[in-house]
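Internal tracking record. Fields below are filled automatically when a chain is submitted to the structure queue. Please do not edit lines marked as system-generated. If the sequence contains nonstandard residues, flag them in the REMARKS field before resubmitting.
Queue: standard
Priority: normal
Entity type: single polypeptide chain
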Amino acid sequence: MSTETSRGEQALRALRPVRVFHPMLLALTPLWGNYAYGENAGLLPISALARPAAVLLAMAAGLWILFALIRKDRYHGGLLASAVIVPLFVVWGALEEAIREVIPLMSTMPRGTFYLLIGAVAIGLICAIAYGKRGDRAALRQVLILGVIIFAISLVLATFVLAPVFGRRAAWLITGYCVATLLGVSAVWNYHGDYKVATRSLNWFATILLVLYTCVLLVNGPRQPHVTAAPLAIAQQSMPAEQLPDIYLIALDGYARSDVLRSAYAYNNLSFEQEMKGLGFRVAEQSIANYPQPVLSLTALLNADYLDKLLKEPTDRGAAPMTAVFAYYHENSVFNTLRGMGYRIESFSPGLESLEPRQDNVVRLEPPRALGEFEMVLMDRTFASRMMQAVYYARFKNPAYWRYAFRRDRIVYAFEEMARLAKEQSDSPRLIFANLLVPEPPYLFTRDGGRAQPYGPGSLGGDRAFRGLESEYREAFLGQVYFTNQKLIETTKQIVDSSKRPSVIIVLSGRGAPPALERQPGPTDERFMNLLMVRFPEGANANAPQWRDTLSLVNVFRVVLNQIANAQLELLEDKTVVPQESKPTNGQSASVSS
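SYSTEM-GENERATED OUTPUT FOLLOWS
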């Protein structure tokens, strides 16, 4: 009786409909897996997942509906959708990692040997498949003919279509992977088993995979510490809020002092400095960044203090080191001080989620529908990355540029929008903060604003290192310096000419120039020798007794607040700090004589 009951239950269960949701869950696994990886969860708000999740779900649902209509079976349609999603989205990241590991090993292989190896692999696969059909002459003949045709098409496709875009070796690896994917989809297309059982199994598999990523996130994910950045202890301001100046803070990355550009790059930056001085800027000729990493220097700048003094609470030190630093970058003393003085904070989006403005009372400025860094990293681990490289090759002959186009858009937008904001009438003073990731590599702009090769001439879409000559690297860097100079002159002129209220304009870089070649190891002393220039409102320059040529970033807002609000803040010792790898807030320090 029990056996009959069990069989009856199995029969009834077989008749029940099964929900098809494995394509959607599988599409979400690269997104959730990347978020759970490393410190991403601590550095990125979960809201950064909303848009890519919506796109992935819509894509998976669209594939499922399309295949279900073609096959006239929703279960089979779901299996086909997952057969496409898994290799092109879930596993594609492993292919990219393999390409980066294999290509250097194959770089010294002669071209003839390379093609002989490819041919041997193809013949071996065809023979292996044909061996399984050895008892059926018609099927054997069909396999051999089809194998030769596929190999011939792959040869033409990889050599003449994909190689110019991705490079010869990467093109063959991608072609082989895509052929394997097509064969897998074909096998699922011809599958005539129990679709419901396969659907139920894939539903469980996708669910367990997401649960495992969630466990990794819960167990190992860093926590964003709660920090309280107290406002600076300023004296009572003597000027009412409506008379305070706007403050424009333009923070660059990898821009060196003029003496370093002259000695390390043989570049004369005097004409740029003269133009800026003509606009009323004071230049700190011997300025320094307090740390060799820009986020550390900017965190010290925005808190007007050194990081080892900020992270003095045990709860702060117990967090992941960089997670705590980013917390103080967002919740900083300067913003809180200026808010107390009646300022409105407006911040341009640099495109890096870890540097995005987080507070609700900070106005976020970014181009409409612009992609962010996390979305670009996610695309880079899916088939979409190679599609974008092909598009950029077809349009600009520059396949590598797609990864950095989102940064270019934000930089151009920030320069243009700052000039527009200056013309707006505002009832309250504003701090307008633009963190612009230039002229540090990867290169985004040529001298005239065109699209530069991100790592210099000769780079292809799969590269992660510069492959050109040292002279080409220098020329690419200096081209981006020149472009940045022109945009700074143009933008600051427009701010000075059209601003509705007096303006303080701060132009600085979070660190100095990179080594002459990216492959050179380690930060050098030149990494601390940064750009720093400030324009105070007319008539205030003569009353800046605390200004000095050796001014460091940690003291910039102390000087500015003393000038515009008589804050009476004491200046700290100007020094550089080389952080320890495991504790970026601590390290060896060296004083700079004033």
